[in-house]
Amino acid sequence: MTKRPYGYRAAILVLESLIVVLIAATGYWNIVSLRDHDRHVQKWLAARSNSDAVRRAVVAVEDERQALAGGDSGMFLQHARQCTDALHRVKLSPNTSDAALVDQILSKQGSVATQGDRLLSSPAAEQPAVLRLDQEIRNLLQLLQSLESRLPVTTEKALRHHDLMRGTVITVTLISLVTLSLVAITFSLLGRLSGLWAASQATAAAERVRADFVSFISHELRNSIIGLQSGVSLVLDEELPADTRRQVANAITSSVGALSRLVVNLLSADRAGRGRLQPKIQRVFASAAVAETVERMSGYQEDLRHRLQVHAPEGISVMSDPDYLDLILSNLIDNARKFSPESTPIEVNVRSGDGEVFLSVRDHGIGISVEKTESIFEPYETSCPNSGHRSGSGVGLYLCKRVVEVQGGRIEVSSVPDRGSTFTVVLPAADSQD
Fold it and tell me: For residue range 59-73, what is the model confidence (pLDDT) as tens digits?
C-alpha cells in the first residue's frame, strides 16, 4: 500500500505532461497555419492591387487617346495624371524585369503627357504631330497590356487560398476535437486514479485506527479485569486490615465505574455512527443534572470530589435527554481530569441567555493546539492533544458532539496550550420552548 501513491503520482504526472505537449503542438500548428495563410493573403492582396492598378492605367491611356482625338487638353491631362497615379500604386520587387517595365512605362507616360500638353495647347495642332502622338499612346498601351499579362492571375490564387484555408480549418478543428476528447479522458482517468489513491489512503488510515483502537480497548479491558480479580482476592482476605480493605473496595468501584463508562461510550458511539441516536427530550433542571453527575463520578473517583468546582444556579432548565446530558457531562469532566494536573481545579459552570443554556467544563491543564481543535472530535482520536501518548478510547468527545447535535445544540472549545481548555455545550433553554 505504501508504494501505490507514488505510482499514482507518476501516472498523473505523465498524463498531465502528455496533455501539455498535445495542447502545445496544437497551438503551434495553429500559429504556423495562420502565418502561412497570412502570407498567402498578403501576396494575393498585393497581386490584386497591382492588377487593379494596371487595369486603371490601361483605361486611363485609352481615355487619353479619346481626349487627344477630341482635342480636349484638360481631359487629356486629367487622364494622364490618373494613369501616372495608378502606375505609382504598382508595388513590385525591385531589380526585376516587371519593375523595370513599370519604370519604362512611367517614363514614356511622362513624355506622352508633356507632348500632349504642348500639342493641345497650340492654337492649331498639326495632323502629323497628332498622329505621331497617337502612335506613342498606342505603344504605351501595348506596354501596359504586356505588363498586365505578366502579372499573376489573382482569381486562381484566391481560389487556391480559399481551398487551403478550408482544409486547414477542417484539420485544426479535428485536432482540437481530438485534443478535447483526450483531455476529457485524461481528466476522467485522473479522477479515478485520485479516487483510488484517496480510497487506499483512507483504507490504510482506517485500518491503522481500527488496529490501534482494538489494541487499546483490549489493553484497557485486560488491565481492568486483572485489577478487579486482584482486588476481589484482597477483599476476601479476612486478615486484611479494614482500612486497606476499604481502599481496595474503592479501587474496585473506580475500575467498575471506568469499565461501565467505557462500555456505555462504545455502545453509544456505535449507535451514533449508524444514526440510531433517539433522544427523549424533556425539561431538565441543569443544576440537578450537574449535581447528580458530579456526585456519581465523585463516588468512584475520590480525587474529583476535591477538584470539582461547580457553579450551577437554581432555576435554569434545559431541553435535553437526561441520560444523554449525564453522558455529555461525564465525558467532559473525565476528559478534563485526564489532561490536567491533580492539583488543579476543574470548573463546571451553568448559565443561560438568549434562549440557550451554556454548560461549560474548564480545566487548567496542557491545553489544545489550534490545529488539533477540529480533529479532537473525530471518532477514535485517541492521542493526547499536545503529545503522542494514548489517553482514552477516542470516542468521548466524538460522542459528545454527536449527542449534542442530535438534541439541536452545539459544542464549542476554546483553549490555550499549557493553560487549559474550556468545552462549552449549548442547548435550547426550556423556558424558550414554553
Answer: 988 888 888 888 888
Each residue of 310-363: pLDDT tens digit? 999 998 999 998 888 888 898 899 889 888 998 899 999 999 998 999 999 999
More confident residue, 327 or 9: 327
Domain boundary among 161, 176, 208: 161
What confidence score (pLDDT) does residue 356 get? Answer: 94
Domain-embedded: residue 109: yes
Q: Which pLDDT score, from 0 to 100, does residue 60 have? A: 86
Count of structural domains, the chain: 2
Residues 6+ apart with CB under 8 A from 132: none
What CATH code is carried by the domain that includes residue 36? 1.20.120.660
Task: Write out the residue range of the structural domain in which residue 85 sits.
Answer: 4-161
Among 111, 128, 161, the domain-final residue is: 161
Residue 79 maps to a domain? yes
CATH code (residue 286): 3.30.565.10
Q: What is the pTM of this model?
A: 0.46
